[in-house]
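ok trying this again, last paste got cut off
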Amino acid sequence: MKELLDVVGAWRSEGVGFGRAVVVRTFGSAPRPEGAVLLWADDGRIAGSVSGGCVEGAAAEEIERARRDGHARVIRYGISDEQAWDVGLACGGTIDVLIEPHVDERIVEAATSLGSALVTPLPPDTPRAEFGPHQPGDGALPAEPLRVTSDGELTGSLGDRRLDEQLVDEARDALERGNSRTVELGGRSLFVEAFPVRPRLVVVGAVQVAQPLVRIARELGYETVVVDGRASFATRSRFPDVDRLIVGWPDEIADEIGLGPSDAVAVLSHDVKFDEPAIIEALRRGCRYVGAVGSRKTQADRRARLLAAGVSADDLDRLRGPIGLDLGGRAPAETALAIMAEVLAARYGGSGRPLRDKARPEPALV
């Protein structure tokens, strides 16, 4: 939804009415994830996507119908593999889509301010919508959304303290991972639409690899910070697009930048007096990703020194070094890509394996 805020603002300024469709559940190999949004305006304009295929047209028709009758509903769209190529759902997946006659102002506020999740109770049984002569059925109306902030504050209630606590945990996890999802709590289906704060990458060491790394991170929506104690390295001419450039010791500026669990830290300076204080501070503060450059021998020597300095073995197990995934490239931009790929895998729980290997069937047990 965040990527459609400009469209929302433009259509509102034109006085055009519109509704939305949002993917709330996926089954199988769905083309778009939970949280994908399509907007349909009364003048026929469409923005966003829930499938990339013929579901777009069907969802737009449902929004138009919802605009006429004022009712929200959940529609299930599925198609068999044999029919998939004809309609655009080549993956053969199934999606549940929440159709809303208008865009709730609370959704726009959450998408604008970030750092919170909107929770919409869904009907327990979602009808299946088949393409062709059969028309999609109606689902029950979703109830009013609840709101959970990243610090755990809940607005609204499920009527049960234990369920409220579980909901807060689920919503905070969704915000941490940046993924919307539907969860099942107390026999209810709840769509958690996450609007996390902008993820941040803190780069220690204004070295050559840091330059393409900042560019790639910004392209992926990350806020970027570069820290180096050498003023001649940490310059705007070398890092024109970085959000924040700091000359100083990384462990000393941790409070200044609010270094914390949601941050990813890439330590690139290859200098013990910069690297190790930064690693210690990042691990101590529980940063979600901590990686450091260096060969295997460098890593082994560093590990021995950090253990001697009081860093626990469990914390050191969280240190990713040598930094990055094994992509085979050695050029600065290639190294930066390998680092950012590992940062993303850590954020989303990805394996880093080729998708081809994941798609292969497991060997049969003999």
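PB: full thing came through this time. The CA atoms of residues 201 and 319 lie 15 Å apart.
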